[in-house]
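Now for today's protein.

===
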Amino acid sequence: MGNLVDNKFTWTIKNFSSLGSEKVCSDQFVIGGCKWELLAYPKGDDKVGYLCLCLAVTESESRPCGWRRHAKFSFTLVNQHSEKLSRKTETRLWFDEEGPIWGFSDIILLTKLHERDRGFLVNRELKITVEIDVLEVIGRLDESEESEEGTTQPLKKIKKDNDGIFSSEVNGFLVLPSQAESVKRIFEKHPNMALNCRAKNQYLRTLCMNALLNLIQTMCQSLQELSIDDLSQADDTLTYLKNSGFKVDWLERKLEEVKEKKMEKEIGETRMQELEEELKGFREKYSDTEALLEDLKQKCSNTEALLKIEEAKLFAAKAPPLTLSDVL
């Protein structure tokens, strides 16, 4: 049983605990103009004792020679008790006739997966979500997606280039149908962005547009996900776009804002860590001082008791002097 929303497919495997088969397959689904399916190995595959999950391009044997799909995808093993405890694994690679199936052989230890209170298996059901971003397609898109694009977006021209890739034309740029709406929105907001684009060859123009989209995608990541290396690469991409004639001053300003926020976050986290260490030291000293004060308090109490005893002895020693009668 599966549920497809945008570029996410959620697969619910019923009676997972009692499955006797070595491999189970999901229903086929279409994301990014490509047909896919998920494979799960309940008893493990290459690594015995671990759950193995794979993503496969379907009907790979019937595809034309030389077909390829470049995709970024992630598996999320859904924790049904707490979303924060879900496990996510991601990668980016090419699917082709030599390797139509890719995945991870060590998603989770089967012993942990089957633990009652872990939250992955609830009512014997296991939920897996795959998120796919198709970055590049060589060879035809799947027919179901071609017709779907043609009916849902009639205002866009669908072209096929020499490699058999179906693309949408937006403002003189050929892009994947899945990218067309984003590119259209960019040009609506910045219509003069590519007026001075130096690339006349359609292949080079597509490279420029893909670089722009990847840059925007990078900037839209959370600060937690965004690394310093990502920002460095974003600077390089921005320079490439400017050298290609793109007017991207608006994007440069946004990138600077993202870099400043990332720097503030890095500085803030470092400062917080320093303060936490400092606070830890103060608390330890405070605890030591408390123990010392308690010891001194006890010593004061003991000394006061001894002082009272000595006072009593001294008082007794100060009795009236003996008289003659006392002596005789």
Notes: Residues 249-317 form the longest helix (69 residues). The chain has a mean pLDDT of 83. The helical segments are 110-113, 143-152, 177-189, 202-219, 228-243, 249-317, 324-327. The radius of gyration is 35 Å.
